[in-house]
Amino acid sequence: xxxxxxxxLTLWGxxxxxxxxxxxxxxxxxxxxxxxxxxxxxxxxxxxANWVGSFCTQRLCAxxxxxxxxxxxxxxxxxxxxxxDDRAKSLVLPVVVRVEDSNHVVNLRRISRPADSVxxx
Length: 121
Known about the structure:
By secondary structure, the protein is mostly beta strands. It has a single domain (6-120), classed as Immunoglobulin-like (Sandwich). The chain has strands spanning 6-11, 26-33, 39-45, 52-56, 61-63, 65-69, 75-83, 93-100, 105-112. It has a five-stranded antiparallel sheet, with no helix packed on it. A four-stranded antiparallel sheet has the order 6-3-8-9, with no helix packed on it. The mean pLDDT is 83.
């Protein structure tokens, strides 16, 4: 059976705040599917200087990139948050999250807006 790497980048929504996330950050969900046990790498790019992209789980946030092994279900949903520089909170910008395993690469693109902050949804 072939297990291609698939991924999506959507708004996180206001319902489930992770204890490790930052208030007022722009929040998105990165959903990944592949063969169970596959190691996937998530990397943020396209952010201005002094901004931080962070991939968060229930326990911790990793700045700009993270490596995750998919569970037995073969699917994972993690929070990706963008923490803007205070001087440029109103900036609208394209963001890319690169998702890759040893055989595949998926580039997820989204226009990030200030309204993507959970507090504004």
